C-alpha cells in the first residue's frame, strides 16, 4: 500500500517541475554560481557541499530536520494505513492559508506573516481531519472515500479563495502560490527555527510514546483491551502529522509534502522488519533525501528545490525497492527461487520414499532399491529436462545417486542415499501427520487432504510436528511414518502392491 502511494507521489513531481518557478538556494544573498553557466565546475560543487554560503546553510539545516521528522512520523502513518492522511491534510490547509491572509489584511496586519499563514493552515487542516473522521464514523463511506471528498472539496475551496486574493490590491504580491509548490530557497533563519522546533517536538513525542504507538499500529484491539487510550494515541499521532505537514508546506509545498511522509517510510520498509530500524532508516533517508535535493537545486538554479527533494527521495525508494535486504524485489526473487528448488527436491525425496515397498523402508535396503526415472514423471508435472535438473541438484547435496543405463532399452534409475532416505522419511511423516490432523480436527474429506498437506509440509517446524503428535493423542500416530490415511493414486498403489508381492 505504502509503496503504491509513494510511486504516485513521485508522479506528482512532474506537475511541480512543469509549474514550479526557478528557485535557488542562493536567491537570497550570493548565488552558488553564475546562473548562465552551462554545467557546474568542481569548485562550484564544493562550494555548495561545504555550505560556504549562509543561505545554503540555513536551507540545508531546515530541510534536514524536516526530512528526519517527516520520515519518523511517516513510518507510523504508513503502518497505520493512513499514508494519505497527510495528503488530505495538506490540501485541506490551502483554504486556511488564503483566509488567514485575507483576514490579516482586512485588519491592517501583514497578511504575508508566516505566523498568520501557518495558523490558518493548521486550523483548516485540523478541520479537514475532523471532517474525514466524521464522515468515516457517521456514514457508511470508508476512509478512502472520505479522504477523496475532503481533499478535493477543500482544495477547490482554496483555489477559489486564491482567485479572490489575486483580485485584491495587495493580493498579487502575497506569494501564496509558494505554499502550493514550495519555496525552499526563500527560507529565513526564523523559518528554520520554527521548522526545527516543530520537528524536534514531533520526534520527541514519537520516541517517548514509541511502545504505545507500535501497539496502536499493529494491534489496535489488543491495545484497547490492555487499557491503553487508543483514541488519545490516535489523536496524538494525527497531531504529529498535522505538525509536520504544516511546517513542511514552507519547504516542498502542499502538493509534494505527502511524499516526505510516505516515500522514506516506504523505502525503509524494504530494508528491515524491525520497527526500531524502520523508523531510524526512514528518518535518515528523509534527511539525506532533503539535503541532497536542496544541494542539487543550489547547483542547478533552474530546478525547483521542492521537486528535487522529492525526486531524490524517489530514487532512494526505487533503489530500496529493488535491492532492499528484507523485502526488495531482488532478494525476494532469490528467496522464491531457493524455496521452489527446496520444494522440488523435497517432492523428489518424498516421491522416491513412497515408491518403496514397506519391506524396503530402511536405509540399507533403500540404497540398493532403484526407482525408475519415468515412474517419477507420472507423479509430478515435471518435464524430463526439469526432472534431470532436480536430480542433479539432489546429487550435489548427496541425497540421491543416479545410475545411467548401459543400453537404450533400459531406463535411468535413481537411488536414495542414507541421508536422502532419512530426509524422505521425515518429509513423508510430516505429510501424513498433517493429513491425519486435517481429517481428525478440520473434518476434511480424506480424498481432499493430500493437496493441502502438500502445500504445508515444507514449512512445518519441529515444534509444530511435536504439537501435532500431542494433539492427535494416538499411539499409532507416533510410529516413524504413519500409513497413508487416504486412497493412493493408481500408480502409487500399483507400485506398492508390486513391491509387497516382491517382498
CATH arch. level architecture of the largest domain: Orthogonal Bundle
Q: Please give the number of β-strands.
A: 3
**CATH homology-level superfamily of the largest domain:** ABC transporter involved in vitamin B12 uptake, BtuC
Question: Can you summarize the main beta sheet?
Answer: 3 strands, antiparallel
Radius of gyration: 32 Å
Regions with little confidence, pLDDT below 50 for 5+ residues: 1-37, 475-479, 493-503
Q: What helical percentage do the residues reach?
A: 55-70%
Secondary structure elements and pairings:
Blueprint: H1 2-19, H2 42-49, H3 54-79, H4 85-106, H5 114-138, H6 143-166, H7 178-181, H8 189-208, H9 210-218, H10 220-225, H11 230-269, H12 275-299, H13 305-323, H14 329-354, H15 363-366, E1 371-372, H16 373-377, H17 384-396, E2 400-403, E3 413-416, H18 418-440, H19 449-456, H20 462-472, H21 490-502
Antiparallel strand pairs: 1-3, 2-3
Helix pairs in contact: 1-11, 1-13, 3-8, 3-11, 3-12, 4-5, 4-6, 4-11, 5-6, 5-11, 8-11, 11-12, 11-13, 12-13, 14-17, 14-18, 18-19, 18-20
GO molecular function: protein dimerization activity; transition metal ion binding
Keywords: Cell membrane, Membrane, Transmembrane, Transmembrane helix, Transport
Biased composition (Polar residues): 488-503
Amino acid at each position: 500500500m505504502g509503496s503504491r502511494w509513494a510511486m504516485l507521489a513521485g508522479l506528482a513531481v512532474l506537475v511541480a517541475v512543469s509549474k514550479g518557478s526557478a528557485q535557488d538556494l542562493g536567491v537570497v544573498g550570493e548565488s552558488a554560481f553564475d546562473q548562465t553557466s552551462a554545467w557546474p565546475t568542481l569548485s562550484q560543487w564544493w562550494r555548495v557541499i561545504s555550505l560556504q554560503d549562509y543561505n545554503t546553510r540555513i536551507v540545508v539545516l531546515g530541510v534536514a530536520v524536516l526530512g528526519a521528522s517527516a520520515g519518523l512520523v511517516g513510518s507510523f502513518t504508513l503502518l497505520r494505513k493512513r499514508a494519505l492522511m497527510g495528503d488530505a491534510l495538506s490540501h485541506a490547509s490551502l483554504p486556511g492559508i488564503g483566509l488567514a491572509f485575507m483576514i490579516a489584511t482586512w485588519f491592517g496586519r501583514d497578511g504575508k506573516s508566516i505566523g498568520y499563514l501557518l495558523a490558518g493552515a493548521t486550523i483548516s487542516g485540523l478541520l479537514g481531519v475532523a471532517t474525514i473522521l466524521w464522515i468515516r464514523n457517521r456514514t457508511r463511506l470508508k476512509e478512502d472515500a472520505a479522504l477523496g471528498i475532503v481533499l478535493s472539496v477543500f482544495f477547490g475551496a482554496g483555489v477559489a479563495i486564491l482567485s479572490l486574493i489575486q483580485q485584491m490590491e495587495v493580493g498579487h504580491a502575497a506569494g501564496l502560490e509558494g505554499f502550493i509548490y514550495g519555496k525552499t530557497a526563500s527560507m529565513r533563519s526564523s523559518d528554520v527555527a520554527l521548522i526545527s522546533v516543530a520537528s524536534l517536538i514531533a520526534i520527541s513525542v514519537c520516541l517517548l510514546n514509541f511502545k504505545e504507538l507500535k501497539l496502536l499500529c499493529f494491534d489496535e484491539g489488543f491495545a484497547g483491551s490492555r487499557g491503553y487510550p487508543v483514541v488519545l494515541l490516535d489523536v496524538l499521532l494525527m497531531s504529529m502529522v498535522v505538525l509536520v505537514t504544516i511546517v513542511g508546506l514552507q519547504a516542498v509545498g502542499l502538493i509534494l509534502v505527502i511524499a516526505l511522509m510516505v516515500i522514506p517510510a516506504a523505502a525503509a520498509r524494504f530494508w528491515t522488519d524491525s520497527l526500531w530500524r524502520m523508523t531510524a532508516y526512514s528518518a535518515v533517508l528523509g534527511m539525506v533525501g532533503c539535503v541532497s535535493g536542496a544541494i542539487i537545486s543550489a547547483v542547478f538554479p533552474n530546478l525547483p528545490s521542492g521537486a528535487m527533494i522529492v525526486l531524490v527521495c524517489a530514487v532512494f525508494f526505487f533503489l530500496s525497492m529493488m535491492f532492499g535486504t528484507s523485502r526488495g524485489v531482488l532478494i525476494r526473487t532469490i528467496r522464491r527461487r531457493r524455496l521452489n528448488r527446496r520444494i522440488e527436491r523435497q517432492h523428489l525425496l518424498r516421491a522416491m520414499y513412497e515408491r518403496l515397498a514397506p519391506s524396503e523402508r530402511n536405509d540399507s535396503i533403500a540404497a540398493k532399491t532403484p526407482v525408475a526415472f519415468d515412474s517419477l514423471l507420472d507423479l509430478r508435472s515435471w518435464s524430463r529436462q526439469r526432472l534431470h535438473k532436480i536430480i542433479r541438484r539432489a546429487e550435489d547435496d548427496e541425497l540421491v545417486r543416479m545410475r545411467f543405463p548401459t543400453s537404450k532399452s533400459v531406463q535411468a534409475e535413481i537411488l536414495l542415499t542414507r541421508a536422502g532416505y532419512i530426509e524422505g522419511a521425515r518429509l513423508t511423516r510430516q505429510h501424513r501427520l498433517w493429513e491425519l490432523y486435517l481429517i481428525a480436527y478440520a473434518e476434511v474429506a480424506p480424498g481432499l487432504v493430500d493437496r493441502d498437506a502438500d502445500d504445508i509440509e515444507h514449512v512445518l517446524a519441529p515444534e509444530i510436528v511435536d504439537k501435532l503428535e500431542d494433539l492427535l493423542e494416538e499411539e499409532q500416530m507416533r510410529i516413524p511414518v504413519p500409513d497413508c490415511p487416504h486412497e493412493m493414486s493408481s500408480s502409487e498403489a500399483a507400485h506398492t502392491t508390486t513391491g509387497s508381492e516382491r517382498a
